[in-house]
Amino acid sequence: MNGGDAKKNSPSKALEETRVLKFGGTCMNPARSRAMVIDRIIEEKEKGQAVVAVVSAMGREGDPYATDTLGALLPPETPELDRERDALLTCGEGIAASLLAAELNASGVRALSLRGIQLGLFTDGRFGEARVVAAAPEAIRRFAGQGAVVVAAGFQGVSADGSVTTLGRGGSDTAAVALAAALDADGVVFYKDVGGLFSADPRSVPAASHLARIPYDEAAHLAHAGVRALHPESAWLAEKNGLPIEIKSLSGEGETTVITSPNDLTQSKYQSSGLFAVTSVEGIAQVTVTPAPTAEWPEFPERLFQILAEKNISLDMIGLFHDQAHFTLPALHVRPAVDCADRLGCSVRARTACAKVSLLGGGIHGVPGIMSRIIGALARKGIPIYQSTDTYTVISVLVDQARCRDAVRALHREFGLDAADESRKELASRRSE
Predict the structure, then answer these.
(1) Quick check: 175 and 118 in contact, CB under 8 A?
(2) How many domains, in total, are found in the chain?
(3) CA distance 252 to 39
(4) pLDDT in tens, 302-352
(5) For residue range 9-31, what is the model confidence (pLDDT) as tens digits?
(6) CATH number reported for the structural domain that contains residue 291 in this entry
(7) Residue 429 lies in a domain
(8) What DSSP line would sit under 241-284, residue for residue?
(9) What is the side-by-side order of every strand in the sheet holding 18-23?
(10) Whether 263 and 378 share a structural domain
């Protein structure tokens, strides 16, 4: 979906000065956090703007209405229940939207909640990881135009047959951007429990550097590499529509990150020419598949990956050899992947409880010495590497999940991201030679 699609599907006159605010799950619980949410909404209303608030489910795993808590009610590996799983998971956002709208009204702010088909977000119909393909938020436009705060349940859209579909973990970000594009908003504000983006998760690396301004593509790389403060699709969608994203702390204090076009970037501590972040993703498994003795190349890997694709199993860190195939995937998907390999008579080994740790930077692929420094920094901490992969901007290694935080800290320190950025300057200099 792009700006043209949104406008084509939204014939009504655009709202003037529309502000789309997205509030994450930790903003919605406990009640004192929702009180700050209401404060942020009132601040925007007092500026004379129409406000659309997109909300996530309340809290984190273990909280009664959090997405992970709801998901635990169903067996994890039941593809035939994907439709019902999506319908169940979106209940969390619906509860959050209704509660916030009620509390806004109790505070003297006219508000109402919308969800499902009422949002006007239409998807490609893939359960669990749907993409928004068109937007026609006429109900939102109508109610916001009448002066009400519209509280939209995030994380969801509807397919062509009317089924509720979820947009993937963090999909409320993408819902907010899609709605902002369709409503011709000037931008989107994401409120989080941590203000802005950093060179690493500041909860794991207290010395992490703040990224004041960052271009869309590098923000998307951060999200793909494991930063949970941003859904990767939201960054690409914002870029297509020229919508800046501002990430703030719910308290309204502290540092802010602006995600925008490279042309709009101003001088800051952030240097787009070199290393800028270390990220991690936990809950990863490594699968090694060895073909049956009678299997031939390339029929073996071609058939294996065809079957995995048919089961909608997404793979990462793929390595192909004449006699083996290696790949990683979320640990929850190991069983279906093993079943696929069994169908071909292959032998399978799975290493669970892994984490992917990634070093991000402009043009790091092929720069001499980067990989040797990664290996050395982790070896000095006694952290083995099970697999690696690299692109033009990302080098990733697979390590034990129990050592994930140690690995992130070691690489963050090794490449000068703790405080001084000498390593980034050195890398930029070597790239220009």
Answers:
(1) no
(2) 2
(3) 9
(4) 999 999 999 889 899 999 988 899 999 999 889 999 999 999 999 999 999
(5) 444 444 568 999 999 999 999 99
(6) 3.30.2130.10
(7) no
(8) HT--EEEEETTS-S--EEEE-GGG----S--TTSEEEEEEEEEE
(9) 111-114, 149-153, 50-55, 18-23, 188-192, 245-249, 257-260, 213-215
(10) no
